[in-house]
């Protein structure tokens, strides 16, 4: 707290208030008793002066009568009594005649008309009385008191008047006043502290706000400005300077971020071009494997065929595959352009069952070589809005997977049918199932999952990625399911109503 401006200001002013109020308390404690004694002496002098103007014998007779009529436990004030109001304020009176006989005493038990003192005591007491007497304070072991001993002469008669007031009343009044003063000092300190806190807060808040805005500026947050409308000219100048600095830094940061963004965009564009190039090369390489495998299989069958017609059929099929390779490269270029948003894939009304049938016919030599049984089950009128060549490449990838993983003499089942709003094409093959951990990842580029027995499936990891890309371009869905004795891959294309 001492490290802040407002904290130090609060501490200084609170100490000042404490010193002032404490000094007032000490001063009051020092002079208040003397002040009370002085006031009581003045009151006794006034009472004594008033008594000198009264007929003393008649006054004593009246006061004794009134005192005798009063109840023992309660006095009732009467308008006839001169001394009762003073006695109610703790003044005590004793009036004696010239023989020092008691004419009146405030104490009800005192015997009037007699002198209970011996001659020596009487003379000693009389010696203490004086004319033109003044009240004074007497300090005793049993307690001090304010006392006035005066001699009153009326005609030929002489009277001794004693007026006293115990210091107990003075002390009690002083204690009450001191307690009230203490409460006033406490209230003054609390109120003063609150006022000082408000003033210090009024100074510290703009400074703290300026510091907070400065920290935000350091974190490149220019959303706030320092208020320039405080009550203090210096703080307004500080806020104006911080705001001007914020605007300049914001301008510099904006320019720097613009240059940095342009540089990042250029680097990203270069990286994307390199990634696209690699992806295209990988896709083309993968897609060329299928026709090359078909050609290789047909060439082997060609060498074994004895029938000229068969040889010609295999030769024509190989030439057809060479042509398809050329078309495939063009198609791959087109798919790449569509995938990257360069151009749109041309769509037309396509019967997916026919696409599957032609693709299976091309793969039959491979399945025959592996002595695998390949069948097609299709329902009529499975029309979709698609690109025939792209869909055929997707089917080819499923068939290539089936050829690669089906065992010798295994079974491959191609099915095309309608299911709700989709036309579903599925390819099942006997063989090892896919590990559950790889089911959702085999569609990723270059990911080659494991079979359930832990063996790697082989391949390049691009075939299923290409299938997913083609199906996505057609607004379809794809998936894979482990069957009892093998695996089934499928994709669905939105059905085209006839």
Low-confidence region ranges: 451-458
CATH class of the domain at 5-174: Alpha Beta
* Overall form: rod-shaped
Question: Which fold name fills CATH's third level, the topology of the domain at 5-174?
Answer: Beta-Lactamase
Q: Architecture of the domain at 5-174 in CATH?
A: 2-Layer Sandwich
Report the mean per-residue pLDDT as an integer.
79
- End-to-end separation: 83 Å
Helix content: 55-70%
User: Strand count, sense and closure of the main sheet?
Assistant: 5 strands, antiparallel
The class by helix and strand makeup works out as alpha+beta
Q: Which strand-content bin applies to the residues?
A: 15-25%
Q: Please provide the count of β strands.
A: 12
Q: Any idea what the radius of gyration is?
A: 60 Å
Strand order of the largest sheet: 2-1-5-4-3
Run of helices and strands: HHHEEHEEEHHHEHEEHEEHEE
State the helix count. Answer: 10
Which terms summarize this structure?
498 residues, Beta-Lactamase, Heat Shock Protein 90, 5-stranded antiparallel β-sheet, 5-stranded mixed β-sheet, 16% strand
